[in-house]
Structures are given as structure tokens and as C-alpha cells.
Amino acid sequence: MTTSTTPRKATNFLVDVTSAKPRASSKVANPRRMVAPNDRTIILARTNTGNTTMNNTRFNGWYLFWMLLISEICGLTPVRAAAKPSPPNVLFLFTDDQRHDTIHALGNSAIRTPNIDRLAGQGVAFRNAYIMGGSSPGVCLPSRACLMTGRTLWNIECQGMWGYEISEKNKTLPEVFRENGYVTFATGKNDPGRTGAFGRSFSTGGKILFRGMTRSQFNLPLCDFSPDGKYPKGAEIQRNGKHSAEVYADECIQFLESHAQTNQPFFAYIAFQTPHDPRQCPPEFRAMYQDEELPLPAAFLPKHPFDNGMLKIRDEQLAATPRTASAVRKHLADYYATITHTDAQIGRILEALEKSGKRDNTIIVFSSDNGLALGAHGLMGKQNIYDHSVHVPLIITGPGIAKGERRDALCYIYDIYPTLCERAGIKVPETVQYKSLNAAIKDPAAEPWDHLYFAFMSWQRGIRDRQYKLIEYCVGTERQTQLFDLLKDPYETQNLAEDKAYAGQLTRLRKLLRQDRVNFNDGNTLYPFADEQGKYFWSRYETVAGTNSP
Predict the structure, then answer these.
(1) Are residues 99 and 244 in the same domain?
(2) CB atoms within 10 A of CB 510
């Protein structure tokens, strides 16, 4: 074979698979590039060519043939990478004062909640979801602050108190989603004095209530959404309008319809102000419940057996003391009717989500900020840490979540923050102190918490595990202790604190209570109100006569 002495020119041979004919290119392609976007061209080799006696065209034709054959046999035919799944949407349905036992599908046959029942059938319901308690008589304020920041009760710089803004150091849940490309929508109740945090958190919304409560569900001081995040301190009351639950549902439906054709993921927060009093609803819903047919709470008492520090609060004045069966049944009928009406609005929202075509890629969360006594233990309000006041519903549905399952794991509703971040592929901020529920969603045996800690202002502290619950009271110069076996007595009616058979459990739980005082920074913070409350409780707990118990 003879070759020319002419210098050889470096060339890339690009073979068009469609024509199977070699063509020379004067451009140097990236040798690592196997497939050009949207074409069928393969880089075979980089070689030097010149005048030879060899028929290069014939050689490369056979070379192409064998290369394609080997690629086909070995499964090396180039394929496009799988499309990255779209981030999930989030629809957060949050009610006000709804206790855990107010859902038909979860055991209350006296109430009608067909749409919440549907959610329970489409996802996982946590049967032991709790709030931590409260640092103000309006328990909704600290509870919602914990929810939005993922911070424990003594580690929120505003402490959830009336008129105090949430620090920018604590990223809110919707704020984190907004920073990660979500459109964030809100309607309904937002706590007073938190317009700054609201402005950081939400990119759109409508009909926003910057008050803790109203005197009517039909006359509402609502604000329209402000892009600059500035809202008036006092909004003009819109009189004789729709019921608040219908107004908020309308706003959410309008948002879902307007967002249906966009690809940007959304985080929608619908904060109902029901079933908080005034417990009003359209008459057809009230007609569903007859007072005399409703069972009384299992822990019904005419009056609370001792001073818990909050017997003169507004909520306790909603019914005369001693409580009567007829008065409590009327309150229950109003309460259930308001919940059923709210449930109907949730149904409208779920229907709009289905019509938008985004249901299959949407995580839905249903929960509430706190419970309510309504005659249990002789109380009417939520300013206590009995089960009826700190135990709330929690249902989570969405892609990758089992349908119709129940979980008995102990948890706080504030665990929602890291749970949603993880499911959306968003890094959980380091400021978040609660725990993800995703392991428990997947595995019924998973236990995020082995016990829970509770507190209410300066007078009550408590702790519970899977079987026992301890509540300690310090009011004035008096101290009271309650110990309940929750497996035998889920309604907390039999106090075992003086039973010597349970002395070991009492000692164990008191030790755990003191440990959690430190773990949760109770009374050791620099923030207003809650640190004073904690110090006040614990100083008297150790010094009041009879309190130097183990």
C-alpha cells in the first residue's frame, strides 16, 4: 500500500443515521457528545484522512454497519433521558377550633363530614396529632406561629403573642415554597399584627382576615391582597355578605381556575375561621342536627373540680356554670352544623381542584389549630391541655401516599412543615425544630416522637406517651396533679395520681417533664411573655407546699 506524503488534515466523520452516508465536517465537534439534541447523528471517530489507495468511503460504510449492529445488540442505541417529575402542588385546608373527634369517617357517627371523609379515604389519617399548647388565651395565635415557622412554643421570637410580628430569621412554610419557585396563595384567617410575615410568605391571595375572631360570620373585616405586603390595621367591615367559609372557598376556587393552565407549582393555604364561635351557618345545615339527639361528651361535668387558672376567660362564659346537659347539647349542635357547612365548602374546593386537572399531583393537608372542650371536664374553651383541647385532626393525601390508612404514631401538627418540604424536594431550613412524618406515612410502625410535651401559659404543664398522661397545675398557692392511663381511660376521667399502684409511673413522668422543660427551653428564653410564664410556673412548681415531689 502506498501513501501520499501530503500532510493529513484532521477531520471529524459525522454519520447521519437516516442516510447512512458519511459526510465530512470542517467543524470540530465535542468528542464526548454522542447524540445531538433532536437529531440522529452519531460521532463515530476522530481520524486523519488523506490520499490513500484504500477506499475510505467503503471502509466507513462497513464500519457504520457493524457499529450499528453491535449497538442494537448491546442495547446501546441512544435514548433521551426521562423527564424530571413536576414538583407537587400543595393545598392546605386549615380550620379553627376543630377537635379531633369531629369526623364521621374517623369514628363520630353523630356528625356529617362527607368531604373530609373522602380525604380520609384518599390518604393517611394521623389519629394522635397534637398541638403543644399555648402562651396566650387565644391558642390559635401561638399554634399558627408554630405551624408557620416550624419552631417550638418557646423558640418563636414573637412567641405567637397578639400583635407581635414573626421574625425574618424564621422562614415561614409558604415563604420557603415561594423561594423555591412556587406561587403561594392565601385566603382567610391570618393572625393580627403579622402582615409582614404574610407579605413575605404569599405572592397572591384574597379576602384576608387580620383578626383573631369576629362577631359575625357574615359581617367580615376583610382585606384584598396587597402586592407590597402592606395592610391597614383596621379593615372596613363587609356587611350582610356571604358566610366566611363560602367567601374563602370562592377565593380558592377562583385561584385554582385561574392557575389551571399554568405549569408553575402552587402552595394554597385556606384558613377557615370556623367552627370557631360565633358558630353560625345557613339554616339548612343547622336543621341537620337535633339538640336532644346528640350524645354528651364522655367527660361531661357540670363544673371543673378545681381552679385551672382560666375559669374566668371569655370562652368559659359562653355557657352558665354549672353546665347543663341541654346547654351543652345546643353548643354541640351549633358546632357540628358549622363543621358540616365548612365541609361542604371543602367539597367545592376539591371539585375545583379535580376540574383543574392538577389533583393527581397535589398534596392535600387537612388539620386545625386547636380543639375545644364544649362541656368536657366542665369546661367550654380550649385554654387547657386536656385531650379535647390539644388533640386535632390531621389528614395527608397526595402522590406516593397510601389511601385509606390510619396511623397511631404520636406527632405534632407542626411536623407538617418538614414533611411538606421533603415531599416537594425542598431543603428543610435549619431553623425548623419539628420532625418529618414521611417515615410514618410510609411505615405504620414508625414513631417520630416517643412522647409529647404540653404547656398552657403560667398554670399548666403536661406530658404524655403512648399509655400515660401527666398534667401538673400551679395556680396561686395551690398545686394539682392528674395522672391518666389513656389505654383504659382515653377521655381522662379517672385521676390516678394518688393511687400507689401508679407511683412509679408518676415519678417517671415527672422526671420526663423536667427533662423536657430543658429540651424545649421552657422558661429559659429571651422572648416576651412565654419565658415569664415558664419561669413563673417552674418557680412555684418547686416551692409551693407539697410540690417537692420526685
Answers:
(1) yes
(2) 18
Statement to judge: residues 459 and 445 lie in one domain: no
DSSP label of 271: E
Shared domain check, 409 and 489? no
In the chain, % helix, strand, coil (3-state, to 5) comes to: 30, 20, 50
Strand partners, 3: 52
User: Last residue of some domain: 396, 415, 449?
Assistant: 449
Check: CB of residue 91 under 8 Å from CB of residue 364. yes
Of 530, 532, 516, the closest CA to residue 160 belongs to: 530
Give residue 262's identity as a one-letter amino acid code: T
Query: Domain span at residue 307?
Result: 89-449
Cell of residue 5, nine digits: 506524503
User: Residue 93 belongs to what H/E stretch?
Assistant: strand 89-95
CB 382 within 8 A of CB 315: yes
Cell 392565601, residue located: 186
- The pLDDT assigned to 472 comes to 98
Give 52's DSSP letter.
B
Looking at the structure, tell me whether residues 157 and 60 fall in a common domain. Answer: no
Domain membership flag for residue 83: no
Block residue for cell numbers 399554568: 262
Residue 72 to residues 65, 79, 340, 497, Cα–Cα distance (Å): 11, 12, 62, 77
Residue 390 forms part of a structural domain: yes
Strands (E), 411-488: 411-412, 452-456, 460-464, 468-475, 478-485
- Sorted by sequence, the CB contacts under 8 Å of residue 313 that are 6+ apart come out as 137, 381, 383
What does the pLDDT read at residue 536?
Answer: 82
CA dihedral 191, 196, 201, 206 (to 10 degrees): 60
Cell numbers linked to 419: 414533611
Same domain, 265 and 325: yes
pTM attached to this predicted model: 0.84
If asked whether residues 282 and 343 sit together in one domain, one would say yes
CATH assignment at residue 191: 3.40.720.10
Q: What is the block-wise mean pLDDT of the chain (550 residues), using blocks of 10 residues?
A: 39 35 38 35 37 46 51 48 80 99 98 99 99 90 93 75 74 98 97 82 95 86 88 74 96 97 97 97 98 98 97 95 98 99 99 98 98 98 98 99 98 99 98 98 98 96 98 94 98 98 98 94 65 80 60
| Residue 79 located in a structural domain | no
Cβ(238)–Cβ(211) below 8 Å: no
Same domain for 311 and 352: yes
Burial class (CB in 10 A: 0-12, 13-18, 19+), 337: buried
Select from 39, 44, 41 the least CA-distant residue to 64.
44
Distance between CA atoms of 274 and 364, rounded to whole angstroms?
A: 19
| 501 domain-assigned | yes
475, 306, 485: which is closest to 378 by C-alpha? Answer: 306
Whether omega before 278 lies within 30 degrees of 0, making that bond cis, reads yes
Strands of 274-385, DSSP E? 362-368
